[in-house]
Hints:
Blueprint: H1 2-9, H2 12-15, E1 19-22, H3 25-32, E2 40-43, E3 48-53, H4 57-63, E4 68-72, H5 78-88, E5 98-101, H6 107-116, E6 122-125, H7 128-132, H8 138-158, H9 168-181, E7 186-187, E8 192-195, E9 215-221, E10 223-225, E11 228-229, E12 232-238, H10 243-262, H11 269-282, E13 294-296, E14 303-307, E15 320-323, E16 326-329, E17 333-336, E18 339-343, E19 348-350
Parallel strand pairs: 1-5, 3-4, 5-6
Antiparallel strand pairs: 1-2, 2-3, 7-10, 8-9, 9-12, 10-11, 13-14, 15-18, 16-17, 18-19
The structure holds zinc ion (2 copies).
Amino acid sequence: MEQRIAALRRRFRTLGIANFLVKRPSNIRWLCGFTGSSGLLLITGRNAYFITDGRYTNQAKEEVSGALVYTYSNGLNAADAFIRELKSNREIRFRGRIGFEASFLTVDFYRQLKRTFPNSGLVETQNVVEELMMVKDEYEINAIRRAVAITDKSLESVLPMVKPGITELGLAAEITYQHVKNGAEKNSFELIVASGPRSSMPHGVASKRKIHRNELITFDIGCLYNGYPSDMTRTVAVGKVNSKLRNIYDIVLEAQARGIEAAVPGARCCDVDAAARNFIAAAGFGQYFVHGLGHGLGLEVHSRPMVNKASKTVLKPGMVVTIEPGVYIDGMGGVRIEDDILITENGNEVLNRTPREFMEL
Ligand code: ZN
Ligand code: ZN
C-alpha cells in the first residue's frame, strides 16, 4: 500500500499539486485497503489521512494501512463532516494545492472546500489513480485468475439447465448461486442473460422472459474474488438458429481472435480495437458493432485502459483487458464473445477456459 501511495506522490510535481484528495471508493481501496463505501483519503507530501464515519471505525482500523485513520460520529452529512475534520483536526496538516478527482467530488463538497480553504488552490484531475492501477501486481492478477476460473466453472454447471421454459432471471439466479458456492464474494455486475430478440440489446439484463427453442442466448457474467472481477460473455444457441445469426457468430468469433492477437505489449488500444472492428466492417456488419472492443479489469469492472477507437494507451505487461466484439441486429438477435486477457512480456494469456466455438444446446 505504501508503494502505491508513493507512486501517487511521484505524480504530484507534474500535476502541480502538493496534496491529493481521493474520494472514489475503489481508488481508496487500492491506496490504503479500506473496502467500505464511504470515506475520504487525503495524501499529503509526507502523510496520508483516512477519514470515515463511525459505522466504519472497526473496519477502518482492521483494513487501512499506510494512512492515519480518523472517524467522526455525528449527524452531519459526509461532506460537512469531512470538511469539519480537515479544518479542525490538528493532526491533519496540509498546505499547498490540492488535487481532487473531478468525476467523483460532488459540487456541494467542492464548494465547501473552496469556501473553507480559500488559500489552497484546488486542482481538477482525471484518472490519476486509475492510471496507476492499470498494471496489476501478482496479488491482483491471482485474484482475477480466481474470479475467471469461478465464472468458467459456474457457467459450465449452469449450461445443462438451459432449456425452453426457464426464464432469463432463473438462469441468472443459478449462475449467482454457483458463483458464491464456488468461492466468489458476489457477482461483479448485474448479470446479463438476454435471449432471442433481447440478445440484440448489448446490456439486456436478465428479465422474466422464458427461453424458447431455436434462439440465441447471450450470457455476460462475472464475479468478484478478493474484490477483483471476472467478466465473460458467451452466446449459445438453444436448438437451431437461422443462417444469418450462425454466420454472424463466426464473424464475431474471428473478430475476437484478431483482437486477442493484436493485444500484445507495445500495441495501442485503438489499434487493438481496429484489428477486430475492421474485420467486422469488412464482413458488412460494421454499423452493428456499437461499442468499444473492451476495457481494463480492476477493482472496477470497467477500468482503464479502455480498448476503443479513441484510446491511445499503450498495452504493458501486467495489464488485464477484455476483448468483447459484438454484432447486434435489432429485432433478430445478437452475438457477443468476451474473454479476459492478461498482457504478458511476450504476448498475452487468455485467462478464460470456457470454449468459444459455436455451441448448440
Ligand atoms: Zn461483460
Ligand atoms: Zn466487459
